[in-house]
């Protein structure tokens, strides 16, 4: 059993708690999906989990809700940013001006299952919402690491593409924590579903142990 990342703690902004008395542990191999209404605290909890993992020295790849891309730069250059903190300034600057062949090949391999190879040299500002989201995924895949934290990482993709991307996440990262709004996708991907409501963790269990009514109650007013 792994040490808890959060042990009956409050998480929020400044002195304002969004969630109180949260306990949360993560074991290698966990695929956790956070469910809950808009504003229930999924992004806030993801932030706290990421912070604890990084504080413990873990490498975490991130797909934020707002993709956080540089619009004027290409898909390739945005993906390269996943490893900026692995290198010094000179390497990063020269690689952004003229990406090294090795890095271009590595990014192209990542873009293949994401269906983005034809877009590799296009500026992100010229892409569709789904293509932008896949670029943010490519950046996280290029970064790699033991953990992926994703905040609605497939919200702009169609059902089939979303399922394929979740499979790819499962192949690339041993452990992941995602906020999703699609309950069916959550059930098929997760080994654990964590439900947030009313400032608390209302449920935490294997998908097969949770009834539709229990999950539905998370979304009731
Ligand atoms: N930077 C911030 N400063 C203060 N309060 C914030 C901040 N970000 C979010 N909140 C508040 O925290 C609460 C939880 O927000 P959070 O973004 O974690 O919810 P969420 O479940 O991810 O929602 P959504 O599904 O809409 O993305 C909300 O009441 C929100 O107003």
Automatic annotation (TrEMBL):
Residues 3-221 form the ABC transporter domain. SMART domains: AAA. GO terms for molecular function: ATP binding. PROSITE patterns: ABC_TRANSPORTER_2. Keywords: ATP-binding, Nucleotide-binding. The keyword Metal-binding does not apply. InterPro entries: AAA+_ATPase, ABC_transporter-like_ATP-bd, P-loop_NTPase. It holds the Pfam family ABC_tran. This is ATP-binding cassette domain-containing protein. The lineage of its organism: Bacteria, Pseudomonadati, Pseudomonadota, Alphaproteobacteria, Rhodobacterales.
């Amino acid at each position: 059993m792994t040490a808890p990342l959060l042990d009956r703690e409050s998480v929020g902004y400044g002195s304002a708690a969004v969630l109180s008395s949260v306990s949360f542990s993560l074991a290698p191999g966990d695929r956790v999906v956070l469910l809950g209404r808009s504003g229930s605290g999924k992004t806030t909890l993801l932030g706290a989990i990421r912070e604890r993992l990084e504080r413990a020295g873990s490498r975490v790849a991130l797909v934020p809700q707002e993709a956080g891309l540089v619009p004027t730069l290409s898909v390739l250059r945005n993906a390269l940013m996943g490893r900026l903190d692995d290198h010094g300034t000179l390497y990063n600057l020269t690689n952004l001006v003229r990406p090294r062949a090795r890095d271009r090949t590595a990014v192209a391999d990542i873009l293949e299952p994401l269906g983005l190879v034809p877009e590799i040299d296009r500026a992100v500002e010229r892409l569709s919402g789904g293509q932008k989201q896949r670029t943010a995924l490519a950046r996280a895949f290029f970064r790699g690491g033991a953990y992926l934290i994703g905040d609605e990482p497939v919200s702009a993709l169609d059902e089939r593409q979303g399922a394929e991307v979740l499979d790819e996440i499962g192949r690339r990262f041993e452990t992941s924590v995602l906020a999703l709004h699609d309950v069916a996708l959550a059930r098929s991907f997760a080994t654990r579903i964590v439900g947030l409501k009313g400032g608390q963790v209302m449920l935490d269990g294997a998908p097969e142990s949770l009834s539709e009514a229990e999950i539905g109650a998370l979304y009731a007013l």
